[in-house]
Each structure stands twice: as structure tokens, then as C-alpha cells.
């Protein structure tokens, strides 16, 4: 299965008031493995960025002035996400903005995102898994031990990368972040061998008591979320 984890930044919070997309970040995942193939672009929105939005993402009008317009990048964006499952946190927000941008175009690109690809909302999924709990991206990073220490401001590509890790942790618990550095799709036949390594220089270190305790705590969390833990099955 090919999935695309997507996030956007915008000039404001309501596309019905004429606000526009200024950044799109996408991360590709095939068979639950990040491929290293991303799509990232800044966009000239042809309007000013609201002060409230600027405080969130820090992207200025001056920075965007020489960037391409959405019409210039639409074909490449649609090609990247076509026929995939798009994973978005709070999908109605991003989908609303993307559909508004696509509606301004002519020809085949004037289509709703849902006709191009399937959409999965991780906010709705998180609310099902953690009813009554905070389920914004920062809170989920903390819950699933995803390092988000460099997220001082929102950024579409950074947030898509963080969401990819959170999604993998939320869905089954067994997180595989191995990159296919060749850029080719995974064959689905298991990990590929890496050649040219000097294994004589590898050092084996045993986990200390604190690390063992953290490991067991992580396995407990996986078991609580998915109802099973592959690691413990293998140990048994």
C-alpha cells in the first residue's frame, strides 16, 4: 500500500474567507516503510498572511513573494498523491483548502482531492483511541515518544514527518522507519541487504536496568494500543 502523509500551512484558518495555501509537505510511505521520497513546496498565495497565522508558522509575505503560484505546482502535487491513501491530521481543514485551490484551476486538475486519492484523518483516529484526551500533534508526539523538540514553529514538511511516526505508532505499534534510499518502492519481500559494511567494527552493548525498564514500558504501551505485541510473542 502506498500512503502519503500530508500537511499544509496557510494564510489563515478559513478558506471560505479567501485564505490560501502557502506550503505543502508530503512524505511517502510504501508498505509502512518511509521511502525517503518527499514532496515539498512553498507557494505564493497572492494575498497577505494573517498575523495570527504568521505567529504559528513564521512564513512571511516577503519570503513567499518569489515563490510559484498554486496553479504552477498543481500538476506535480496531484501526480504525487494520485491513487494513494493520504494521511492528514484534522483532514477537513487541509482538504478544504486543497479543494478550494483545485477548484480555481481549469481542466482535469479542477477536481476534489477525494476523487484523486483516499483520505484518512488521524485526528478522528486519535479521538477513537484516546477519548477525552488531548490529541493535537504535539500531545500525540509526547504520548508515543516521538521527538518533536525542534518544532518551535509549524512547518508542513516537518509536521508531515512527525505525523508519519505518530501514525505508525498509533496503528499496530510496530514502527518501521527504515528508508529505501534507492527511492524505489518496497518489494514487500522484507528488508534489503546493505553491502559494504565492516561488521568487525560493530560493538554489542547490553541494555542497562533503566533501558530495560523503558523497553518494557514501551512494550506495555504497544500492547495497550493494539491488543498484542509482536516482540513479546517472539520472546515467548
Quick recap:
With 236 residues, this protein is of the alpha/beta class.
Describe this protein's structure:
- Helices cover 38% and strands 16% of the residues.
- Mean pLDDT is 85; it is low at 174-178 and 180-197.
- It has 2 domains: 2-170, Nucleotidyltransferase, domain 5, CATH 3.30.420.10; 199-235.
- With 236 residues, it is of the alpha/beta class.
- Strand 2 and strand 3 (33-42) form a beta hairpin.
- The radius of gyration is 20 Å and the shape is elongated.
- A 5-stranded mixed beta sheet has the order 3-2-1-4-5.
- The longest helix has 18 residues, at 209-226.
CATH superfamily of the largest domain: Ribonuclease H-like superfamily/Ribonuclease H
Indicate the proportion of strand residues. Answer: 15-25%
Distance between the termini: 30 Å
Low-confidence stretches: 174-178, 180-197
Series of secondary-structure elements, N-terminal to C-terminal: EEEHHHEHEHHHHH
What is the count of distinct domains? 2
Helix content: 25-40%
Identify the strand order in the major beta sheet. Answer: 3-2-1-4-5
Count up the helices. Answer: 9
Spatial extent as radius of gyration: 20 Å
Characteristic terms for this protein:
Nucleotidyltransferase, domain 5, elongated, 9 helices, 16% strand, 236 residues, 2 domains, five-stranded mixed beta sheet, alpha/beta
Secondary structure elements and pairings:
Blueprint: E1 2-10, E2 21-30, E3 33-42, H1 51-57, H2 61-64, H3 70-81, E4 85-88, H4 91-103, E5 118-121, H5 122-129, H6 137-143, H7 156-170, H8 209-226, H9 230-235
Parallel strand pairs: 1-4, 4-5
Antiparallel strand pairs: 1-2, 2-3
Amino acid at each position: 500500500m502506498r500512503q502519503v502523509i500530508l500537511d499544509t500551512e496557510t494564510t489563515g484558518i478559513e478558506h471560505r474567507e479567501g485564505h490560501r495555501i502557502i506550503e505543502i509537505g508530503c512524505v511517502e510511505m510504501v508498505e509502512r516503510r518511509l521511502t525517503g521520497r518527499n514532496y515539498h513546496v512553498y507557494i505564493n498565495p497572492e494575498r497577505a498572511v494573517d498575523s495570527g497565522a504568521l505567529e504559528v508558522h513564521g512564513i512571511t509575505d516577503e519570503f513567499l513573494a518569489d515563490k510559484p503560484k498554486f496553479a504552477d505546482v498543481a500538476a506535480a502535487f496531484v501526480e504525487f498523491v494520485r491513487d494513494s491513501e493520504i494521511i492528514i491530521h484534522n483532514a477537513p481543514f487541509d482538504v478544504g483548502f486543497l479543494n478550494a485551490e483545485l477548484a480555481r484551476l481549469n481542466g482535469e486538475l479542477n477536481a476534489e482531492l477525494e476523487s484523486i486519492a483516499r483520505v484518512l484523518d488521524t485526528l478522528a483516529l486519535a479521538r477513537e483511541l484516546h477519548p477525552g484526551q488531548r490529541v493535537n500533534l504535539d500531545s500525540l508526539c509526547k504520548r508515543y515518544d516521538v521527538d518533536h523538540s525542534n518544532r518551535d514553529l509549524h512547518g508542513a514538511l516537518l509536521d508531515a514527518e512527525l505525523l508519519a511516526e505518530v501514525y505508525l505508532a498509533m496503528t499496530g505499534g510496530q514502527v518501521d522507519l527504515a528508508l529505501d534510499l534507492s527511492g524505489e518502492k518496497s518489494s514487500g519481500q522484507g528488508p534489503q541487504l546493505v553491502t559494504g559494511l565492516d561488521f568487525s567494527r560493530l560493538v554489542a552493548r547490553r541494555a542497562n536496568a533503566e533501558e530495560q525498564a523503558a523497553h518494557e514500558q514501551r512494550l506495555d504501551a504497544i500492547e495497550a494500543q493494539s491488543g498484542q505485541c509482536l516482540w513479546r510473542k517472539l520472546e515467548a
